[in-house]
Amino acid sequence: MIKKDLSVDFLGVHFENPFLLSSSPVDNCYEMCAKAFDEGWGGVVFKTIGPKHFVVDEVSPRFDELTKEGTPFVGFKNMEQIAEHSLEENLHDLKQLKENYPNKIVIASIMGTNEQDWEELAQLVTEAKADMIEMNLSCPQMTSHEMGSDVGTNPELVKKYCAAVKRGSDLPMMAKMTPNITDMIPAAKASLAGGAEGIATINTVKSISNIDLDKRVALPIVNGKSSISGFSGKAVKPIALRFIQQLRVAAGLEQLPISGIGGIETWQDAAEFILLGATTLQVTTSVMQYGYRIVEDMKNGLMHYMEDQGVDHLSELIGSANKNIVPAEDLDRDYKVYPKIDWDKCIGCGRCYVSCFDGAHQAITWDPKTRRPSVDTSKCVGCHLCNLVCPVGAITTGEKVMKPGRKGNAEDKQVESVRLTHF
Amino acid sequence: MTKNYETEAPGYTMTTVMEEAARCLLCHDAPCSQMCPAHTDPGKFIRSVRFRNLKGAAETVRENNAMGAICARVCPTEKYCELACSRTGIDKPIDIGGIQRFVTDFEQQSEMDILKKGEANGKSIAIVGSGPAGLQTATTMLERGYAVDIYEKSEKAGGYLTYGIPEYRLPADIVDYEIKRIINLGAKIHYNVTIGKDMMMDELKANNDAVIVAVGASEAKVLPMFEGNQYVESAVDFLARVKEANGNIKDLPTSAIVIGGGDVAMDVATTLKRLNVEHVTDVTYEQFDEFRASKKELEGTQRVGVTIVDGYVPDSIEGNAVTFKARNMDSKLTIKAEKVILAIGQQVNADNLGINIEHGVVPYAGYKTDDPKVFVTGDIAQGDQTVVWAVRKGKEVADLIDSELMGVQNND
After folding, report:
1. Domain B10-109, what fold?
2. For chain A, what is the mean pLDDT?
3. A-B interface: how many C-beta pairs under 8 angstroms?
4. Rounded Cα–Cα distance for residues A368 and A352 (Å)
5. CB-hemisphere CA count at 13 Å for B83?
6. Is residue A139 annotated as a catalytic residue, yes or no?
7. N or C: where does chain A have the smaller number of CB atoms within 10 Å of the terminal CB?
8. Do B53 and A392 touch (CB under 8 A)?
9. Which residues are the signal sequence here (chain B) (predicted)?
10. Residue A244 sits in a domain of what CATH number?
11. What values do phi and psi take at A2, rounded to 5?
């Protein structure tokens, strides 16, 4: 089995690998974190610890899933708040984890309602020997508006609370950002101004996932009612990647240390977060669906990817895709590439014809007798919707042409497959 | 004309293998993983496929099984991993063999080099026979640092994999690639050497720390009534002839009787049909409810249009007319065909190897013989006689020898 060094350094702390459980139901007590460590996770962000005066009182049931066709958990809705164990129990567990797993990284996630809470919690988790602090400024389902994502959208409060945490602790600290905001940069900069050394993002996206059509109540139904709450899982990955990319290219944030979160389930997802600038990676939803064991394939697959890419350390990959993500106005709009249909592979389903007519530019002609599609280049704009809907991969990129009146050689344009191909 | 014989059924594509892997329930304490005689872990490699880690999946298969691509194709999975599959509680088991085939095909296409030779420990092993058990033993010993010489009586390695299983079920390219991996790992194969004839056991014993006899049951059994009959050929000879000629054999009949009810009989009958022999009737001792051939094999045979008569035993033969007697009825049946192929089992030729064989196996459990330097494995060791069992026996005999030899060394 392949062996590569997956270790990373993040906010001055050395992680044996970048895979962490995010602060959530998956690392709610000592036993859970211990099992996760035993199965290979590099660290945990222990479920958010709140102040003694905030009583967590949960609903039942508290989750829902978004499905598409036969696929469960396309996205996941969660109404659970912060740790329901007592402050003493949580601090005890942190301490015990660090004692029994000295090489694993224990990060304390904390959340207060005011400066005093934040400062005290920071002090307590530092005494419990946590390696790092994550400030939860972003949970969207708190029962107090003084906590969670309502705070995280307010840069002034963010800065003030970060400074409070810094007064209570000299541990490295990251602030966890909410995606329920148009632009994350002001809140991220406010965190740094308050003393944070890094950013964790994204927390969950405010959502309503499904409505029971007979009862006319959103899911999950809590004694006849429901609430907006956080959405996570594969469906939010593109949103997370976008925020991370924007943070890393913002003026002054180019080297921002980021702990990436949002729909990570495979080594490919992990690699994508790394390529856009994440150093550590946090996971919950896929663990809730499949268990801690998923880390095996994330680690092994990432090692193979490093081998394929010829790198010995993940730091060589961090943020390296950002230079290829440019403003839309800077993209090359001088050429188009036509689809190429391989009739030996084509099984005559006609899905490309349907999608092109109804969703694109009526550029695929259909022979009803032979059940064969052809591309009409006089109408084709090269969008490649057909390529994406083809169930057998019979449609690929074909001839490249310059748009009328544009300069340049179409053959020089780099046109790759429109699908993910790396395994 | 031989396209039917040469062409393996298409395997999964990246899209369809994901669909099949998505059917997997990713069970806790996966039952499939407890059922493989060779200790393959489908629960783990299917999970790797599901999470798009194909290279990891290939590692899981290959590190456990030097015959991974072969087992994927020929293992009667319905008796092992797929029998245990929890998905059966919903509809039908996961096609574990098919997913394993995709994974090992990917391994080959990506030219992965998963097996690693162990650091040389200065000890050497001779293996007699290069069938699946001999090859697996060689692999495990090489991984542990032994020097390995394999002595094969034929001109090609692989035993029944090369000379028996038809091309449409197990392409020669796949077998050759598995063997190439083991050669690359350091195995030296000496072809056309029959131990006991061209070279004696004493020489092997003198030159090696251990000798492993893995000769298998390579010779056909014949009932006295069929001996010397010009219309009769053994399944072993027929399958080898067809495979070597890649289906291009000249003297094909228009009708044939196949006698036997195991996988070999199914292979013969199906091969005949795939070579366009019009009338093929297979007569079996067993009735359908006690059938020995795997379900997959039986279905394949029926699909190509072989007539199967179950519960009959051969009674007499006159020229090319065979008369069968029903086992459980007072009934006789005479069938005349241009060719009669016997698939009634194989026997061991262990001449001059100094090994006692009774009913095709050594008369004791385990892999040791009376000679402390000589071990047995494969079909002549007790246990099932399938490829997956050959892999198991190969690993077990290697473990045994390794612990004995390294134990000796530790006492020095």
Report:
1. Fumarate Reductase Iron-sulfur Protein; Chain B, domain 2 (1.10.1060)
2. 96
3. 56
4. 14
5. 13
6. yes
7. N
8. no
9. none
10. 3.20.20.70
11. -65, 145
